Amino acid sequence: MFMKRFAIALLSGILALSLAGTASAATVDVAVPTVKVALDGQTVDLGTNLSVKKGKTFVEYATLFKLLGYETEFEQETRTIHAFNDEYDIEASVGGDIAFVNGQTVYSTGEVIAENGRTWVGLRFAGDLTNHKVSWSGKTKSISLVFQGPTEEERAAVYELFNKMLLVEAADDKAGFAGLLSEDTAINAKEVEEDWDKTKTKTIIEDKYIESFSGSEAVVILVENTTKVSGEFFPDNRSQNRYTLHKEKDGAWRIYDVEAIAMEYTDIPGMFKQTVEIPDADKAAIGQVFADQMKAANEKNEDGYIATLLDYPGKEDLKTTLAEFFASTAMTVTTDEWTIVEYNGSDKATLLVSTTTEVDVDGTKSTVKSVILNAAEKVDGKWLLSADATVLENEQV
């Protein structure tokens, strides 16, 4: 909710890596090793569910994750382990090079193996994934796992901050917002307050978990679904955000920083309904400069394209980049819909436009539909566009 002024960023695609892997060639020693395991100070007898291969300790997956407080499932077709509790969701495949923890990738080469009809997981690997401190004592030949996460009481205290955050938003309480920030906060409170005055929103927290925890700092991941209630232009969105919290002298948790991890816009058609009043002459001029920009792109005219842009230090570099791009790409861009969603009453506005682009790169053809947000500014009586346009959506059709 504190990122009402949505992030201007280009989102790169994520390479999908297969969970399914080939069977490990490693052989697990079936003899019961002389290795002791302690969980939170209590010795655990794993019996034949614990084995050692070349000095590395493995435990049968269901036994290990149950011990750590997880439920488990096993997908036979892909040979994928699924372990989960209220805070963590883990997927890892036999022979796979990566695992997933709450959707984030971690390396898992050699950590999940199949042998003697059973599936085994590296003990240190599983401990690290589940936020346990793993220690080895060569003297006693023992492994210690100590959970590093919060107690139920500590977890409740952390989550209480986000309950307050939702109440502040619902009450449209700008003054209450300041009380949510830590004394050393990295957030620019003034900017947030300015956006607060412009737009009222409603946020639903769809999911949350504590990524790391200590006595003075907690890092929490939230999945937030935020919609506009009233005010100026705001694109409804579903975002994943990382909140870093600091514990203050009074013992209360407060927000030090917020980082956007991912964002998707949930109501593109609704954005085009957020049109604002603007003099016809200015609206026509902004529409014309964008049309000129698209015409220049279609004609591979880098000079014409640059002529539609506001000045900025990298303008000449962009011209070179455009020339190289136009030389290797055949492209036809058409405008499907456009409107003005922000206007300051004189010389600044924001253009929202949807386009269809047909691209041919070395004989490979594709069609992409895009939704773009572009700042416009009147300079010496002429409207020009910012080179830093925001691509809200790209969909290949």
Automatic annotation (TrEMBL):
Write the record's keywords in alphabetical order, separated by commas: Signal
Residues in Copper amine oxidase-like N-terminal domain copies = 39-144
Annotated Gene3D superfamilies: Copper amine oxidase-like, N-terminal domain
Q: Which residues form the signal peptide?
A: 1-25
Indicate what this protein is called per its UniProt record: Copper amine oxidase-like protein
